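Why does residue order matter? Because the sequence determines the fold. Keep that principle in mind as you read this record.
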Amino acid sequence: MNSTYKIGFYTAISLVIANMIGTGVFTSLGFQLFDIHSVFSILILWLLGGIISFCGALVYGELGVAIPRSGGEYAYLTKLMHPAVGFLSGWVSSTVGFAAPVALASMALGTYVHKIIPEINITVCALTVVAVITLIHAMDLKAGSSFQRVLTALKVGVIICFIFAGLIHTPDHPITILPQPNTLDEFMSAGFWVSLMYVSYAYSGWNAASYLAGDMQEPQKNLPKALLLGTLIVTIIYVLLNFVFLYSAPMSELTGVLEIGHVSAAHIFGDFMGKMMSLIIAFLLLSSISAMIMAGPRIIKSMGEDLPMLNVLAKTNKRNVPYMAVITQSLITVLLIITAQFESVLTFVGFSLSIFTFLTVSSIFILRYRKMETPGYKTWGYPVTPLIFLALNGYTIYKVLEMKPVESLLGLLNVAIGGLVYFIGKLLSDKKQKKYV
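Structure:
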């Protein structure tokens, strides 16, 4: 029956992979090359991003087993720290955390399509994609799950073919993956850590399956597997993909370039396929947009269940889909696309989301202290792996605060607005309860 349909392991892992592989890996290398000039350092940078994400996924697996509720950070922080902390994390995720990346990916898709078919308007294309995918995910969980699995399988297949073609290509420039004399200096440079911030953004989405734990078959078994295997697959893809970019084209042609995929494809396949790469990347973005439209509303739904002022957002249809939450997130996305504010929003959203990811991973120590663990999956390498995540993520947050203070303060301002909404909601709820006592 549709009313009791639960997503399986393959949908869960497709959500992780699709959320992670977006525009970041196809656009950020060119900017990393301003400060990092060796292939070895670039590959270590992307491997380090994968290690951080994997350590986080190890912890989220245990949190999800102990608290098998949809909502991710919102559910874990509400239970383990305080409802106000949980609400703030949910506020950041639901207002901009998913809506802004969906807007960015949709506009990027429109831009890629426009390059091949100039008659297509970029904004109209972006809005159409958001509307169609929203309709799919607002109606039926089973249909949305099938749609997501197919898109992700096609995405991974295309990327693997691209990597294979790149590896058998013979480059026309010298290249070495061995460490260089200045490699250690590059590791210690501010540019390396700023680049790690952008790499971490490219890896964001490793926790995607946790947002749908309550809609999942056997979350105690499937959630940890989806988080860990999905993150591992994407780490391997990212390291290989960046090696192919550097192997196929000289660094001089990649430095400062946004369309890395276009340059690399032109060297591997020729100019025509270089141009077609724009259309291929546009296609790959569909699964990312779909995954974020599927995952994000589960946070909004959980918030609506807990805060009476927002209970309209918790409404579900007969097929168990939180349609009001799906529509709400997409309306925010549409507003960001129309006003073209998503890029400025993205400059601070990563900072504020990192704070709550940091708090969520640290909450594993509260879980263990309260002896709330359940039989089954436990964080491998505890307490070392959570501490590795906290140390590297914490240092990255510090460097962002130091080097981008305005964007960081804007992120904190959005958190403060969420706090005001929470306390107003609690005040109204308490008054209503007293009225009926």
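The chain has 20 helices and no strands.
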